[in-house]
# Entry
Amino acid sequence: MAMRSYGDAAAPAEERAAIQLAKMILEGGWVEFGIRDVVAKKRAGLRSSKEVGAATRVLVDAGWIRLETGPKPQRGPSRTIYTANPALAGETTP
# Structure
């Protein structure tokens, strides 16, 4: 009975944040995004870059998203970009 009532709450914070992020990716049809994009949405468990970073690590390990590396910008901080696995949207890659 308790597991049914508190099942989600029993999961570690990183996993709960990853579930929230996965829902955002699926509902929003996101192909690529950055940490700032997620923080700007102000969802529970994803309101700081630290929380989003933990969630992205879980989803990278699960194969849902991939960290993209690009050229370093000439000015300003570099932006970390993640791309969603095309299989999540039902797309297939050759």
The radius of gyration is 15 Å. The chain has four helices and three strands. The beta strands are 32-34, 65-68, 81-84.
